[in-house]
Amino acid sequence: MPKMKTNRAAAKRFKRTAKGGFKSGNSFTSHRFHGKTKKQRRQLRGLSMLDKSNVKRFKKMLPAK
What SUPFAM superfamilies does the record point to (predicted)? Predict the structure, then answer.
Protein backbone atom coordinates (compact mmCIF):
# COMPACT_ATOMS: atom_id res chain seq x y z
CA MET A 1 0.00 0.00 0.00
CA PRO A 2 1.45 3.43 -0.91
CA LYS A 3 2.20 6.11 1.64
CA MET A 4 -0.40 8.78 2.35
CA LYS A 5 0.41 12.10 0.69
CA THR A 6 0.52 15.17 2.91
CA ASN A 7 -1.87 17.94 1.96
CA ARG A 8 0.67 20.71 1.26
CA ALA A 9 -1.82 23.55 1.70
CA ALA A 10 -2.64 22.31 5.20
CA ALA A 11 1.02 21.67 6.04
CA LYS A 12 1.84 25.34 5.41
CA ARG A 13 -0.96 26.57 7.66
CA PHE A 14 -1.11 24.13 10.58
CA LYS A 15 1.48 22.59 12.90
CA ARG A 16 0.99 19.47 14.98
CA THR A 17 1.65 19.75 18.71
CA ALA A 18 3.41 17.14 20.86
CA LYS A 19 0.10 15.90 22.30
CA GLY A 20 -1.47 15.50 18.86
CA GLY A 21 -3.45 18.73 18.60
CA PHE A 22 -3.04 21.36 15.90
CA LYS A 23 -2.16 25.02 16.16
CA SER A 24 -2.66 27.70 13.54
CA GLY A 25 -2.56 31.43 13.01
CA ASN A 26 -5.68 33.47 13.58
CA SER A 27 -7.96 34.84 10.92
CA PHE A 28 -8.88 38.57 10.75
CA THR A 29 -5.25 39.70 11.10
CA SER A 30 -4.28 41.00 7.67
CA HIS A 31 -5.98 44.39 7.30
CA ARG A 32 -8.78 46.73 8.46
CA PHE A 33 -7.53 47.07 12.03
CA HIS A 34 -9.30 50.40 12.54
CA GLY A 35 -12.55 48.47 13.09
CA LYS A 36 -11.04 46.32 15.83
CA THR A 37 -10.36 47.24 19.44
CA LYS A 38 -6.87 47.15 20.93
CA LYS A 39 -7.92 44.11 22.95
CA GLN A 40 -9.02 42.23 19.81
CA ARG A 41 -5.78 43.05 18.01
CA ARG A 42 -3.68 41.98 20.98
CA GLN A 43 -5.54 38.67 21.34
CA LEU A 44 -5.21 37.87 17.63
CA ARG A 45 -1.40 37.86 17.85
CA GLY A 46 0.32 34.51 18.12
CA LEU A 47 -1.24 31.11 17.46
CA SER A 48 -4.41 29.39 18.58
CA MET A 49 -5.40 25.75 18.91
CA LEU A 50 -7.69 24.11 16.40
CA ASP A 51 -11.07 22.99 17.74
CA LYS A 52 -11.17 19.30 18.71
CA SER A 53 -14.12 18.68 16.37
CA ASN A 54 -11.77 19.29 13.39
CA VAL A 55 -8.77 17.30 14.62
CA LYS A 56 -9.82 13.96 13.06
CA ARG A 57 -10.06 15.58 9.60
CA PHE A 58 -6.67 17.27 9.92
CA LYS A 59 -4.94 14.07 11.04
CA LYS A 60 -5.85 12.61 7.62
CA MET A 61 -4.46 15.69 5.85
CA LEU A 62 -1.23 15.71 7.85
CA PRO A 63 -0.17 12.11 8.52
CA ALA A 64 2.44 11.51 11.23
CA LYS A 65 6.08 11.43 10.16
Answer: L35p-like (SSF143034)
